Amino acid sequence: MKAKIFEIKRFAVHDGDGIRTTVFFKGCPLKCVWCHNPEGLSFAPQLAYYAQKCCSCGECVSICPEGAHTIRNGQHVFDRTKCSGCGACEKACLYGALAFYGCDRTVDELLPVLLEDREFYETTNGGVTLSGGECLLQAEFCEALLKRLKAEGIHTAVDTCGFVPKTAIDRVLPCTDVFLYDLKAWDESAHIRCTGQSNRLIIENLEYIDSCGKAIEIRIPFVPAYNQDQMKEIASYLRGLKNITKVRILPYHNYAGSKYTALKMENTLPEELPSEEAMQKVRELFKTYGLQVAD
Ligand code: SF4
Ligand code: SF4
Q: Per-residue pLDDT averaged across 66-78, rounded?
């Protein structure tokens, strides 16, 4: 069994407690307008081409079996329609102009990489986080990987958008120490506007995990143009759940703009960024509902 992975990030400090290694799985059922990981949306492998880094050296031309790279009049031309997503050209580029997203990995291949930083996990109460995209679209693989991590005594976190079948949650529940659970809007219509999907299944799954007694860290991307007016309702709702260990408000940023261009994807990133004052206000709001808020 193999999973489609687009990144493994070591020394991650924002994906759960302590120092962690985060595995990013490809493919997502939502399409958030503010997505900062557009390379995780599609399940298909993708090559990003950063034109501003390319010096037209031509090293990628002979590597590509499909003839997707050519040099014309001294300039590199990338024909994306010919790319089959094999990933072979990424390493040929010494200038970092090519980035390949979508490697196939087995549990046996991933495990040694994930255990490399065991010492840091132990000294910081960290561990391994499965994220994405949406890792639970590949739930069978996640279950197998999490089981092996637990057998090694590693703390595990699953970062999910919650828009997955309940059966996917059941698979990983016994071997997950904490869920990092995204909430983006409370009103169904607002949620559809932000993500393209209803949030009913997301709420159902959150309540199911809560009823099973699992620790849940809620993560709320704060995007003023899309969900600023939703915060009170979310805070009020969360107060009624039993196993919310903390709420983390994530300030929206637009750093991913160049990735959209490099992947030739439509850039949907909103313009308005949250001010520090607005962030502080929303953190205070959640505290007034008796919730612990991460800084
Ligand atoms: S990923 Fe493979 S098919 Fe696509 S451009 Fe690179 S070498 Fe060619
Ligand atoms: S190897 Fe990199 S720098 Fe050279 S032509 Fe290809 S993309 Fe451009």
A: 96
Asked if residue 285 and residue 142 are part of one domain, the reply reads: yes
Residue 30 confidence (pLDDT): 98
Write out 46-94 in H/E/C secondary structure: EEEECHHHCCCCCCCCCCCCCCCEEEECCEEEECHHHCCCCCCCHHHCC
Ligand having the closest approach to the CA of 89: 1
For ligand 1, the distance from its centroid to the CA atom of residue 67, given in whole angstroms, is 8
Residue 121 and residue 264 in one domain: yes
Residue whose Cα lies nearest atom 8 of ligand 1: it is: 64
57 lines ligand 1 (CB under 6 A): no
Å from CA of 153 to ligand 2 middle: 43
Last residue of a domain, one of 101, 129, 145: 101
Q: What is the 3-state secondary structure (H, E, C) of 31-53?
A: CCCCCCCHHHCCCCCEEEECHHH
Q: What's the number of domains the chain is made of?
A: 2
Ligand at shortest distance from the CA of 54 = 2
Mean pLDDT of the region 52-58: 96
Is residue 179 located within the same domain as residue 109? yes
Report the alpha-carbon distance of residue 135 to residue 130 in Å, rounded. Answer: 6
**Which pLDDT score is estimated for 295?**
79
Q: Whose CA is nearest to atom 8 of ligand 2?
A: 54
Same domain, 83 and 190: no
Quick check: CB of 291 below 6 Å from ligand 1? Answer: no
Instruction: Give residue for tokens 């007016």.
Output: 229
Nearest CA to ligand 1 atom 2: 86
